[in-house]
Amino acid sequence: MNYSAADVKKLREETGATFADCKNALAEGENWAAALKFLDARRDKKAEKMIVANRETKQGGVFSYVHHNHNVGVLLELNCSTDFVARSEAFQKLASELSLQIAGLAPTYVTIEDVPAETVEQARKTILEDTAVERVPEHKRDEFVDGKLKKMFGEQVLMMQPWVKDEAIVVGDLVRKVIAETGENIVVRRFARFEPVSYTHLTLPTILRV
Predict the structure, then answer these.
(1) Is residue 45 a contact partner of residue 174, using CB atoms and an 8 Å limit?
(2) Using one digit for the tens of pLDDT, what is the confidence trace for 157-169?
(3) Which residues contact 164 (CB under 8 A, 6 or more apart)?
């Protein structure tokens, strides 16, 4: 497609991609949507390369968030490979966005792999007991069950949750975008979410254990 310098600037502002990538996307794409798709694919390829490289992620930090009414608090450990990236604006902003996500949607796990095997197996058993499964062709049942499992655990798994600021993408996509932007793998190591407990409903021994 034909494009101008203004188009390149607009695409960079919208996507955060490099000048060269934006020029290539506009040159290769037939329209604006195609250019965005080109950049998404390139971003995913870069992110996958960083993830597969499996470089150590021992830098980063622990980040905190407390809601303005003090009813919700979050501690998040976010890791990367170098202190340079750990200090970058993109990394710091990602930590902030993830903390807000955890505070708002209260996930239980970081990835689907963190869900205990027995929990997944019990969920699979429940799905298979549903009479709706019988109406699915046998050669498609595994795919049907896997889809049900992803939907079931999607709300509990941080990386599978729709991003609170843009439900068109999931949190995993947001992380991959920053991985591509920084050129380093980024790992959500762990998190904890806190809410006040009504101690009037607890026994004295329980209070002493807190």
Answers:
(1) no
(2) 999 999 999 988 9
(3) 100, 101, 104, 105
